[in-house]
Amino acid sequence: MCPSITIELDERIEKCEKILSENSESLIFAALSDAYRKKGDLSRAFHVCSRGLKIHSEYGPGHLVMAKINFERGMYSEAEKELYLAIKSDGKTRTSELLLAHILYKKNQTKEAKKILDELKATDPDNQTVNELLNAIQQGGEAEKSYYDTIAVEDRWNIENISDLKEAVGYLKSLPGILGAMVIGEEGLVRESKLNPKFKKELLGATAIDITQSVDEGITGIDLGKYERITVEGQNLELWISRFDHQTLVLCCSADANLGALKVRVWEMLEQLSLNSG
After folding, report:
1. What is the pTM of this model?
2. Mind listing the pLDDT tens digit for each residue in 88-119?
3. Residue 249's domain spans which residues?
4. pLDDT value, residue 151
5. Ramachandran region of residue 255, left (φ > 0), alpha (ψ -120 to 50) or beta?
6. Is 3 exposed, middle or buried (0-12, 13-18, 19+ CB in 10 A)?
7. Nearest to 212 by CA among 178, 249, 182
8. How confident is the prediction for the chain on average, in pLDDT?
9. Phi/psi class of residue 268: alpha, beta or left (left: φ > 0; alpha: ψ in -120 to 50)?
10. CA dihedral over 206, 211, 216, 218, signed as positive or negative
């Protein structure tokens, strides 16, 4: 392994370990176990991921990492089971389809693997990784195991590269069903935003602040604790408001947005933002 990559993995492991030591229920376990996997420490990767999945049994990215770990351990049936749990949680992606094709190939189910790859090739005929695995099937050879890591960086919405609020807001706006995203500071001013033209930034920000203040006043005296999220459901739109680091995150979601998956992705993004800016 390239020395610079090893150093980068060591730094990531150190940061992830610190976050996990401060919060044993953190979702950062998936990034930590994946870093151990990439470093070649499959035993530790398996241990960290297993422990995290006992707490977050429906966390799709965790099951995806476990599928990769089992694949590299040669446990192909177990890898397939974990992959289906990831798909059940987050739906099919190019990452999951490519990994499934490689698992099926290893299990000598080449017909099924080729069917998946042909479908992927139809939408992206010049994709090198798809073509490499297809050639491997046709020639009975081996494809590079790193192909799914390359795709995963793109397919998991580039979370690992988020380092500031501008990138975070841009990432959130790119998610399926998200029509707009903004972050409001403690003073009530919009710090970052990426919205569809139909939304007025100042009006949306003021509305979100009014809603949070009304909720704060309304729950005074009730043993509810601090709220995690406020949702306002309209006929064609849902407003999703949450707090983090003394700031307010506002998302405008279409009616068909998967809010369960969105909640997990927002947690993951905020942890990665903390990790990269720490």
Report:
1. 0.59
2. 988 888 888 989 999 998 888 989 999 999 99
3. 161-277
4. 41
5. alpha
6. exposed
7. 249
8. 82
9. alpha
10. positive
Distances in Å between the Cα of 172 and the Cα atoms of 4, 130, 175, 205 are: 30, 28, 5, 17
What is the number of domains present in the chain? Answer: 2
Q: How far is CA 6 from each of CA 10, 52, 70, 172, 252, rounded to the nearest angstrom?
A: 6, 24, 22, 30, 40
- Per the CB < 8 A criterion, the answer to whether 184 and 248 are in contact is yes
With a cut of 50, say whether residue 133 has pLDDT above it.
yes
Token pair listed for 98:
């490519």
In sequence order, the β-bridge partners of residue 184 are: 190, 248
Query: 128: pLDDT confidence band, cut at 50, 70 and 90?
Result: confident
Single-letter amino acid code for the residue at 90: D
Q: How large a percentage of the chain has pLDDT more than 70?
A: 83
Cα–Cα distance for residue pair 237/148, rounded to 1 Å: 35
List, in order, residues 6 or more apart from 72 with CB less than 8 Å away: 37, 42, 145
Residue 5's pLDDT band, with cuts at 50, 70 and 90, is low
Dihedral angle over CA of 213, 176, 84, 268, nearest 10: -40
Of 139, 159, 179, the domain-final residue: 159
Assess whether 135 and 169 both reside in one domain.
no
Asked whether the beta carbons of 59 and 27 are under 8 A apart, the reply is yes
Residue 114 has which token pair? 């080729």
Going by pLDDT thresholds of 50, 70 and 90, the confidence category of residue 85 is very high
Residue partners of 5: CB distance under 8 A and separation at least 6: none
User: Tokens in use for 260?
Assistant: 């369960």
> Which domain-ending residue is among 159, 179, 203?
159
